[in-house]
Specification:
Helices cover about 40% and strands about 15% of the residues. By secondary structure, the protein is an alpha/beta fold. It has one domain (about 10-250): NAD(P)-binding Rossmann-like Domain (Rossmann fold, 3-Layer(aba) Sandwich), CATH 3.40.50.720. The protein is globular, with a radius of gyration of 17 Å. The structure holds nicotinamide-adenine-dinucleotide (NAD). Nicotinamide-adenine-dinucleotide binds near residues 37, 61, 62 and 185.
Length: about 260
């Protein structure tokens, strides 16, 4: 018996990286998965199938409400319900860290558009299917909002907004039996995370070195480290928890 048997989960940004790990982790607990991403998600679909569950890939740009609505409708049409939304898609791995004075308004706003508006639009898209049925929304934040990581002010601001957005949405969605929470990882080896220290354009020590030395648990984080907390928030083990942010960064920061 899997903890998510019979459930349907949409995982955005799951063509690669941490999103793919979330999709696989949920599939191993029995969930059927909608892989939603700008990139081709067929490799995640294949991994889910190899794990014994079902998945479909729906190409989705989360900045487009119509595409988010089509993603939610596809989940309902193919699998009959939308029980879980894991709002993971973001501009992250493509960020080139640089001093704040070098960021243009357009660069700043693009990150807010994808990372904040994108999650909001996905929540709007799933709401009609989750309403009064016990839905679980898990928004991916970042522990960078506790530390104030330099070189990516737009990203850190976007993840701060996710914590606040989660609180606001939890207030409205509680009346409709939907839990909304934020998970906040620290620096994690992912397709995106691995680019940072290679590409940065500012003179700071490697992000990973900085974080690793400051953690209580002094080891590297990998996507598999992040799955457990997402599963907890996707099941009824967390039925009375909403509006919260759970930091899981090896004890780098406390919240
Ligand atoms: N890796 C880390 O160190 C770390 C730490 C804290 C939080 N996070 C968060 O975890 C999540 C996953 O991170 P990751 O390391 O796997 O990042 P990543 O950059 O490797 O992957 C992000 C995914 O989102 C997709 N995406 C980007 N824009 C999109 C759009 N407009 N519509 C749909 N999909 C889009 C990308 O195609 C990609 O598959 C992100 O929300 C990130 O901010 C990552």
């Amino acid at each position: 018996m899997g903890r998510l048997d019979g459930k349907v989960a949409i995982v955005t940004g799951s063509a690669q990286g941490i999103g793919a790990a979330y999709a696989l982790g949920m599939a191993r607990e029995g969930a059927r998965i909608v892989v939603a991403d700008l990139l081709d998600g067929q490799s995640t679909v294949a991994a889910v199938q190899a794990a014994g569950s079902k998945a479909i890939f729906i190409k989705t740009d989360v900045t487009d409400q119509a595409q988010c609505d089509a993603m939610a409708k596809a989940a309902k049409d193919r699998f009959g319900a939308v029980d879980i939304l894991l709002n993971n898609a973001a501009i992250f791995g493509s960020i080139v860290m640089k001093p704040f004075m070098e960021y243009s308004a357009a660069e700043f706003m693009k990150v807010l558009e994808v990372n904040v508006l994108g999650q909001f639009q996905c929540m709007k898209a799933v709401f009609p299917y989750m309403k009064n049925k016990g839905g679980k929304i898990i928004n991916v934040g970042s522990s960078s909002i506790n530390e104030g990581v330099p070189g990516m002010p737009h990203y850190v601001a976007s993840k701060g907004a996710i914590m606040a957005l989660t609180r606001s949405m939890a207030r409205e969605m509680g009346d409709f039996k939907i839990n909304v929470n934020t998970i906040a990882p620290g620096f994690t080896h992912s397709d995106g995370g691995n680019n940072f220290d290679k590409n940065k354009q500012m003179d700071i020590p490697p992000l990973e070195e900085l974080q690793l030395n400051a953690r209580c648990i002094k080891r590297e984080a990998v996507p598999e480290d992040l799955i457990g907390v997402a599963l907890f928030l996707a099941t009824d083990d967390s039925a009375f928890i909403t509006g919260q942010m759970i930091v899981h960064d090896g004890g780098l920061s406390f919240h």
